[in-house]
């Protein structure tokens, strides 16, 4: 591996920019991962690793894992611990970093019309966004559509998602309306979560076959525009509706989409 | 209202200790709340407010709310903004603080043998603990049993719970084993969540009537000792089990306990 000892090196400056700046991520089509677990996950899942960086200290401690990651990276560098400190986003950095390529999928590639998807409109908190994607992967959801809100490729969302963003198909869009209309044309059912207790109960709607369920922003819920395209559905609650936050509502919605009894109904 | 202008005042020193130190909270049987919403919630729910503190700036901005809180507090003080800074736990403090009494409930008072309870064993992250209690309140769970882990009366857990800890009956114990055995003697069913796929599926067990479901620590799950007292149950997943975190598992478990179809089975 080649070495980089100067924190002023162009490759290091690029990586720092990618870590900190959503518009730069979008422009370069790269995102930043930090830590042994996430970088190893990227190598394991075959995510295209554009560049990998490892500190001298990390190499001494995690030589085998680093060899595994470096082999799968397009380019890999050993860096001084000072450079590692410049790259680190977390307090207790392990000195292992990757720049990965943001996967580019067309709408048709990303969204299988027979699948079950969660759509996240304008979610503000990267920890919520990451946690929802992590749960989606656990429950076997086909993928996530992300529109607006915080950047799902931010280091904070990647950490909260614990590698699930490398495995779960994600389709990001600036126009959720158009995406949903196209899915409806391809035969998918559209639902939107609302606290409105007069909406259809989530336990009583047919979510078999191709389906997208939209979860809205933490404070304001699903926008009027999106709600008008979807069948409103609600999680019936015995307690105080305002106490159910966006990521918990998403977890219960995805669980109901994949709930064993429901899937059996459809012979799946 | 009397004034406190010195950050060295004994009442202020006590409040700072209570905010920062779990053992002091236990000893004094008091906990610390910060912010207009939480302090107003405490007044609204009739939580015994031992002492309330308001900064001059807060009084100018939120006079009506402060009058409402002060009326319900056993004692209330106006404090200088410098004292407010000393009391503040959050970056953007509103200058409104309460010391509230930790409710003391006997096991028999706290746990209705016909209710549906969530028990949290050794949860480490106050944000998880708070979020689970918030969801419990939303779904209409009867209460929570908390054993070990982080302190549910910490300011961080209180913030994450968004007032639900003031309304949801909480029973804290150092001996979950003994609590569960006593509940079983009173006719309650005991379940413990496990990722073990051979355990009974949560969708196929009878959770009507009095029931307690135990959720374990973020890393290690429910302890062997507790698992041996309970019927193991699992959330059947099509995806990667290790991706379901403790608070999401708790949300799905509580949802299944309260799911409308289930309650109907029991004529409720």
Give your account of this protein's structure.
The structure is a homodimer of 268-residue chains. Chain A is built from 14 helices and 12 strands. Chain A is α/β, with parallel strands linked by helices and 268 residues long. Chain A has a 7-stranded parallel β-sheet, with helices on both faces. A 5-stranded mixed β-sheet of chain A has the order 1-4-3-5-2, sandwiched between helices. In chain A, helix 8 links the parallel strand 6 and strand 7. In chain A, helix 8 packs parallel to helix 9 and helix 8 packs parallel to helix 13. Chain A is elongated and about 60 Å long. The termini of chain A are far apart. At the A-B interface, helix 8 and helix 13 of A face helix 8 and helix 13 of B.
What is the strand and helix layout of this fold?
2 copies of one chain form a homodimer.
Chain A: E1 2-4, H1 10-20, H2 22-28, E2 30-34, H3 36-44, E3 49-55, H4 56-61, H5 63-72, E4 76-79, H6 81-87, E5 96-101, H7 107-110, E6 116-121, H8 126-139, E7 143-147, H9 155-161, H10 164-167, E8 170-173, H11 176-185, E9 189-193, E10 200-201, E11 211-215, H12 224-227, E12 231-234, H13 246-258, H14 260-265
Parallel strand pairs in A: 1-4, 3-4, 6-7, 6-11, 7-8, 9-11, 9-12, 10-12
Antiparallel strand pairs in A: 2-5, 3-5
């Amino acid at each position: 591996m080649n070495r980089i000892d100067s924190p002023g090196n162009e490759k290091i400056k690029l990586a720092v920019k990618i870590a900190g700046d959503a518009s730069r991520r979008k422009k370069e089509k790269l995102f930043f991962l930090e830590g042994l677990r996430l970088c190893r996950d990227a190598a394991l899942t075959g995510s295209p690793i554009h560049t990998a960086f490892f500190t001298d200290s990390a190499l001494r401690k995690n030589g085998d894992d680093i060899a595994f990651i470096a082999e799968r990276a397009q380019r890999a560098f050993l860096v001084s611990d000072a450079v590692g400190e410049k790259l680190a986003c977390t307090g207790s950095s392990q000195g292992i970093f990757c720049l990965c390529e943001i996967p580019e999928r067309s709408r048709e590639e990303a969204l299988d019309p027979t699948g079950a998807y969660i759509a996240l409109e304008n979610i503000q908190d990267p920890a919520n966004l990451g946690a929802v994607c992590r749960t989606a992967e656990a429950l076997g959801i086909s993928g996530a559509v992300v529109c607006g809100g915080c950047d799902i490729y931010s280091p904070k969302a990647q950490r909260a998602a614990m590698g699930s963003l490398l495995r779960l198909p994600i389709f990001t869009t600036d126009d959720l309306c158009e995406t949903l209309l196209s899915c409806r044309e391809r035969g998918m059912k559209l639902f939107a979560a609302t606290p409105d207790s007069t909406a259809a109960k989530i336990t009583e709607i047919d979510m078999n076959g191709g389906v997208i369920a939209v979860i809205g922003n933490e404070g304001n819920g699903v926008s009027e525009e999106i709600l008008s395209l979807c069948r409103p559905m609600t999680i019936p609650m015995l307690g105080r509706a305002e106490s159910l936050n966006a990521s918990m509502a998403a977890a219960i919605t995805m669980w109901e989409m994949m709930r064993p009894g429901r899937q059996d109904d459809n012979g799946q």
